[in-house]
Amino acid sequence: MKRLKKMSLLLMLAAVMAFTAACGGGDTNEGTSGNGETGEELEGSVVIDGSGTVYPFMARMAENYMGEQENVSVEVSRSGTSAGFKKFLAEDGTDFNDASRSIKDEEKAQAEDLGIDVQEMKVALDGITIVINKENDWAAELTQQEVVDIFLASAGKKKWSDVRPDFPDEEIQTYGPNENHGTYEFMFENILEEQDLPENINLQQDYSTLVDLVSKDKNAIGFFGYGYYDSNKDKLSAVKVDFGNGPVEPSLDTIKEDGDYAPFTRPVFTYLNTNMAKEKPQVLDYAIYTMENAQDVAAETGFAPLSDEDIQASLDALNGLK
């Protein structure tokens, strides 16, 4: 009888232990982490500023992440690449800075002086897109040199007829993002080879303002990242650029490092303060989540996705911070 009671007690204890394990017993606080693996439920904030070009990509990424990590608030702003670096490289600065250009040597030096360890994360590829008004039926195709000359002060192309004699005898109205943006710097440094833009160019902080201005001006021509054109195709037309082998339309297929639109293609980035990543688990988790989902979000927001090799290289570096 005693042996039977002892056996019954053991069976009851086994059942209780199995039930407790199935329910995730104890005081552990585990669930689904942002990177899709079983791990700690996170809380707190992630603060991001920087590039207006990268903003649509990062805003979508943040929305997706917060859908999985409901107790983490991801704040995404868009003051521009250069203005964003000023906020990033400061005491109690931002966790990430989105950038449509690489970090400059002087910014690296400033980070070193502040004791900030910076991790570069290439997230996608973008194409500088030359946009015109929907009513412009003469400049739908331009050579690379004609594009350069239009935005180059020293070329003196003030009227459309200065570009080609059969173009209208009307003044060209040029538009673009202002000096806070990496897109401006890429245009100035890489496409114009550090030669001045026209004095009368209309430079704006906000990309939606640029879209509106070009859409209302028949003689307008402007430049910005492909994503903003892609989301405003109903208002603007993109110039097909001839780089020497025929006109090329910017698209996710042509905007690649070795693609037909390569001369106007550039990588875009976010920069991580690894000090913050080590102090705040949600920051590192968000960084890993971003790279794990970069290819899908890039395609959804008007960017050409990176290669698997580029993604893995970034993930290896981030996982090394754990």
CATH topology annotation of the largest domain: D-Maltodextrin-Binding Protein, domain 2
- Total count of helical runs of at least 4 residues: 12
> How many structural domains are formed by the residues?
2
Shape: elongated
Task: Report helical residue fraction.
Answer: 25-40%
Q: Order of SSEs, N→C? A: HEEEHEHEHEEHHEHEHEHEEEEHHH
Query: What is the percentage of strand-forming residues?
Result: 15-25%
Rounded mean pLDDT score: 89
Structural class: alpha/beta
Distance between the termini: 56 Å
Number of strands: 14
CATH architectural designation of the largest domain: 3-Layer(aba) Sandwich
Q: Let me know the largest β-sheet.
A: 9 strands, mixed
Can you offer a commentary on this structure?
The strands form 3 sheets. Strands 3, 4, 5, 6, 8, 9, 10, 11 and 14 form a 9-stranded mixed beta sheet that branches. Strands 7-12-13 form a 3-stranded mixed beta sheet. The radius of gyration is 26 Å and the shape is elongated. Helix 2 packs across helix 11 and helix 11 runs antiparallel to helix 12 (308-319). The longest helix is centred in the N-terminal third of the chain and has 21 residues, at 2-22. The protein has 2 domains: 42-125 and 268-319, D-Maltodextrin-Binding Protein, domain 2, CATH 3.40.190; 126-265, 3-Layer(aba) Sandwich (D-Maltodextrin-Binding Protein, domain 2), CATH 3.40.190. The protein has helices at residues 2-22, 55-68, 81-88, 105-114, 144-150, 160-163, 182-191, 207-215, 226-230, 274-279, 281-300, 308-319; strands at residues 30-32, 38-40, 44-50, 72-76, 96-99, 118-133, 141-143, 173-177, 202-204, 220-225, 236-238, 240-242, 247-248, 265-273. Strand 12 and strand 13 (247-248) form a beta hairpin. It has 322 residues and is of the alpha/beta class. It contains 12 helices and 14 strands.
